[in-house]
Design brief:
mainly alpha, about 230 residues, Tetracycline Repressor, domain 2, 10 helices, Arc Repressor Mutant, subunit A, about 65% helix
């Protein structure tokens, strides 16, 4: 296990380094296998210094989970709240769910390590709920804008329904991308995400999509898609 290069850091930087080291150790050894000593070694600090920032290992794990969830959701939330038309923002939102950061196999290892704690640990459950509701809220507001922009006010009362369906769809494709990405051509799952969201929202195939002709060809019956965001 490698030791991080030493540098004189501020309080905030040192805390960030400890959280990063905690995530590294969890990804490698799991939550039970990641010890305070291993984390201290990875961060290049002493165990005593860790206690200056975190009262317990549990507190370190909670901070690490909060950081992981922020890494997984921040790109999508930023896309939903970005500039441009609602259609452009929705395309960016879908794209953000297939970014290199989100689909990194390391992220799956961390997710798998943490997920079992959510039903039994109220702090982990609260962290999960905080980030999950944040991304649901961002997407629901985006869909309200999208339907208003496209003169479909009758769909606005169903935005919650569409939000949960799209989130479940993208989460499922995320699992495919991280568990068995080698089974799919480049861009195939991203193209499928766009096509599926278009179908859920009653749009024409290609209305939101941003993939290349080559990626489109991996899905039977797919037409070339023009990037518009």
């Amino acid at each position: 296990m490698s030791r991080r290069t030493f540098h004189r850091a501020s309080e905030a930087e040192r805390r960030e380094d400890l959280i990063a080291a905690t995530l590294d150790c969890i990804a490698e050894f799991g939550i039970q296998g990641a010890t305070v000593r291993q984390i201290a070694t990875r961060a290049g600090v002493t165990g005593g210094l860790i206690r200056h920032y975190f009262e317990s290992k549990d507190q370190m794990m909670q901070a690490a989970y909060r950081e992981m969830m922020a890494s997984m959701t921040s790109g999508s939330i930023e896309a939903a709240n970005s500039a441009g038309t609602a259609k452009q923002r929705l395309g960016r939102f879908i794209d953000a769910n297939h970014s290199a950061t989100v689909t990194d196999p390391r992220m799956l290892s961390l997710w798998a390590a943490f997920i079992g704690h959510i039903p039994h640990d109220p702090v982990f459950a609260a962290i999960h709920r905080e980030h999950y509701t944040a991304i649901l809220s961002a997407l629901e507001n985006l869909l309200r804008d999208f339907f208003a922009e496209n003169d479909r006010p009758e769909e606005i009362p169903r935005c919650r329904h569409h939000t949960v369906a799209i989130t479940g769809l993208l989460d499922g494709l995320w699992l495919e991308a991280t568990l068995a990405n080698d089974l799919f051509a480049d861009g195939e799952l991203s193209t499928l995400a766009f096509r599926s969201v278009e179908a859920l929202l009653g749009l024409k195939s290609g209305d939101l999509s941003v993939q290349t002709d080559a990626a489109s060809a991996t899905i039977p019956g797919a037409a070339p898609i023009v990037k518009d965001i």
